Amino acid sequence: MIFPIPQKNNLNGEAVVIKNVNIIGVFKDIAEKALSSYGVASGGEYTVEIKVTDSKKTTYINELSRLTDEKYFITVNVDKAVIEASCKRGVFRAVNTLGKLIINNELKTGELEDYPLFVKRGYIEGFYGKTWSNEKRHSVMALMAKYGMNSFYYGPKDDIYHREKWRELYPEKEQEELKKLFLYAKENELDFHWTIGPGLTYHYTSDEDFSLLINKIKSIYAIGVKNFGLLLDDIPWDFQYEDDKEAYDSIVDAHIALVNKTYNALKEIDSSIALTVCPTQYSGDENGYYISKFGKGIPSDVSLFWTGEEICSRVLTVRESNELLRSTDHKPLFWDNFPVNDCEMFQEMHLGAIIGRDKELYKACEGLISNVMEYAECSKIPLLTIADYLWNPIEYNPDESLKNAHKEVLGDKADLFKYFADHLGVSCLSKYSSAYMSEKLGYINFLNTTGKREEALKEFKDYNGNMRKCLEMISDTTVPLFNEMTKWVKKFSMCCDLLDAIYNVWASPSESNIKILSELTEKYNSDGTVLTGFCLREAAEKTLNLY
């Protein structure tokens, strides 16, 4: 199975095994570069022909009654494959699918038709914490493009020129880095959205502040960016300047005026510029005074960020989307605060799959933009599952998607990694973790209490042995992913010590072994880093109570 799962895959005929291809037609350079990332070289005997046709077939999704530039067809014969799409982006999506089919040995004769169900699919660097390096950004961009995302929002809270020094232009070096980032996003068919958050100090009645805001945006427009965001989240609810209080009845009126003034100024610069806004009320009651008035007071083509019923919502539903549309005249663009782990969540590592999002959410919203963690390598794992969900939510399977994410990021280390990843599922989406450990310890306890003591000890020893092998693997900080997890790896080491101590008491309940178990249990529980579910503490406490 390849991910994201295609909409209509009728490649079920004769198997076609190829390593090299001869690409003909338009966008040959793009296809060669994309396929080379899958180890498929050019210059072979098998022909891949690319056809670009702007027709209803390649641009229209019948069941959604909308146009798209990402639809494509792949027709496979024993000696030739034909890709048909309407433009560069559709071809880019197609060749990535073809590459996956080839390396997974799933290429067969027949036809595949594919297109995304969510219109806008992407992520935002919008967390509090150390910003990503451009090298990290490029790595995540390339992977998300490979899996069908089409949007990247730049808005790091700790970029001082994004918030604290919003009035100041980027220095030359930082401006050049932004330009490189924009060009890399363009190369990977990701729409680059640059955002600014002036609300901490913005003076709503100041012509000078507005001029500085527009000049800052113009400086980013000059490098080619045409998608902008005005973020008014996490700012004071009260006016900070006396003349603002006199000029506006409430803060929402000031925000509406700012958005409309900004929108009009941007359209004067370039009518093709698009604007996204995040209101100060971005979650909760869809019918609240602020959000209702704000939504109805701004232009209908401005995208409206919304996080759902909560800041970090456990579920996102069609019902709440429809309610927000009714209240604001805007379909929500969901700012999904998963997998982000900043603020009060800093002790958690969110490596689970996306769950709790309605399978038909695409019908009622503009799209979904996921807020990532400050840990770029770690963010790749949940982001891959989000990309799968956003492309084809109807067929999305979180367990299978997560397995694929582990395989994509970890390669042959994926099977062993599961012993660690098992404990990193706690997030706003779920308060439960350690499903595999719970199953194992439950089975071991069952064997022990039904008189199969030796079998129980063997199962326990084997499990602990695999945990130790996993610990040895993830302790290698030269691997970027593992280097980001040092805090959780340290806690995992304590977990392994605790499991060994439980085993030792089971095998030999001596006074010294019991004392060691008691001390390790206290040490483990006193560390605030979130790892493992209740099952480990239960196993330790039961063992101490028994002996």
Structure report:
With 547 residues, the chain is α/β, with parallel strands linked by helices. It has three domains: 8-114, 2-Layer Sandwich (Chitobiase, domain 2), CATH 3.30.379; 120-396, Glycosidases (TIM Barrel, Alpha-Beta Barrel); 435-546, Methane Monooxygenase Hydroxylase, Chain G, domain 1. The chain is built from 19 helices and 17 strands. The protein has helices spanning 28-36, 56-59, 88-103, 134-146, 172-187, 207-221, 242-247, 251-269, 289-297, 318-328, 376-391, 398-410, 414-421, 435-449, 453-474, 480-483, 486-507, 511-526, 534-546, and strands at 8-15, 20-25, 41-42, 46-52, 60-61, 66-67, 72-76, 80-85, 108-114, 120-125, 151-154, 191-196, 227-231, 274-278, 303-306, 332-336, 367-371. The strands form three sheets. It has an eight-stranded parallel beta barrel with strand order 10-11-12-13-14-15-16-17, surrounded by four helices. The two termini are 49 Å apart. The model has no long low-confidence stretch (mean pLDDT 96).
Roughly what percent helix?
40-55%
Estimated share of beta-strand residues: 15-25%
Strand order of the largest sheet: 10-11-12-13-14-15-16-17
Instruction: Give start-end ranges of low-pLDDT stretches.
Output: none
The geometry reads as globular
Intertermini distance: 49 Å
Structural class: alpha/beta
Strand tally: 17
Radius of gyration: 26 Å
CATH homologous superfamily of the largest domain?
A: Glycosidases
Count of the domains? 3
What's the mean pLDDT score? 96
Q: Could you name the CATH topology of the largest domain? A: TIM Barrel
Largest sheet: 8 strands, parallel, barrel
The CATH class assignment of the largest domain is: Alpha Beta
CATH architecture of the largest domain: Alpha-Beta Barrel
What is the helix tally? 19
